[in-house]
Amino acid sequence: MIAPQKISHIGIAVPDLDAAVRTFKQQFGGTASPPIDVPAQGVRMVYLSIADMVLELLSPLSDKSPLNGFLKKNPAGGLHHIAFRVADAQEAAQSAAAEGLGIVGPGRPTPGHHGRPIFFLHPKSTCGVLVEIEEAAR
Fold first, then answer.
1. How far, in Å, are 32, 47, 97, 99, 121 from residue 1 at the CA level?
2. Where are the alpha helices (DSSP H) in 1-138?
3. Which residues pair with 53 in a beta bridge?
4. 52-68: b or e for each residue (b if 16 or more CB lie within 10 Å)?
5. What span, in angstroms and rounded, lies between the C-alpha atoms of 64 and 15?
6. Does 132 qualify as catalytic in the annotation?
7. What pLDDT, in 10s, does the model give residues 20-33?
8. Contact of 109 with 93, CB cutoff 8 Å
9. How far is CA 42 from CA 62, 107, 120, in A?
10. 54 strand-pairing partners
11. 56, 91, 132, 135: which is the annotated catalytic residue?
12. Residue 30: which domain range?
């Protein structure tokens, strides 16, 4: 069993990152991070902290971004993933594999843009929801 400590963030795919940041800040307040380019994932993101929650607004970094497929199906954007924070991503990945859950990509945690290990569970394994598992800062 994967043992989450808490929800890290909720990822929302958007076609226009600047417009999405304006919309969410206008409607809900909060503080936005500067944009972060993550070439390894093909996305540009902004973290928006609202109360004790974090939204990760994501837009494609290029025409080759895997996010384009999602936005083609959902042109206005939408819920992309939910991320759980765990103490040990490698242990969580081993538990997931032992339980037969599909891991997207290389099948093991890889460094996220922040340097901490992350991996994604395939939506077919988690009731249609893409789930990110992110190791907590030590």
1. 34, 28, 10, 8, 13
2. 17-28, 67-73, 89-98
3. 50
4. eebbbbbbbbeeebebb
5. 14
6. yes
7. 999 999 999 999 99
8. yes
9. 7, 19, 15
10. 49
11. 132
12. 6-135
Domain-located, residue 101: yes
Note whether 96 and 109 are within 8 A (CB). no
Token pair for 9: 């963030």
Distances (CA, A) of 77 to 18, 67, 122: 13, 10, 19
Residue 80, domain CATH: 3.10.180.10
Q: Rounded to whole angstroms, what are the CA distances from 100 to 103, 105, 122?
A: 9, 15, 11
Tell me whether residue 52 is in a domain. Answer: yes
Pairing of strands 78-86, 6-13: antiparallel
| Global confidence as pTM | 0.93
87 within a domain of the structure (yes/no): yes
* pLDDT tens-digit series, residues 36-91: 999 989 999 999 999 999 999 999 999 999 999 999 999 999 999 999 999 999 99
Q: With beta carbons less than 8 A apart as the criterion, state whether 88 and 137 touch.
A: no
Q: Which amino acid, one-letter code, is at 126?
A: T
Return d(Cα 85, Cα 63) in angstroms, integer: 30
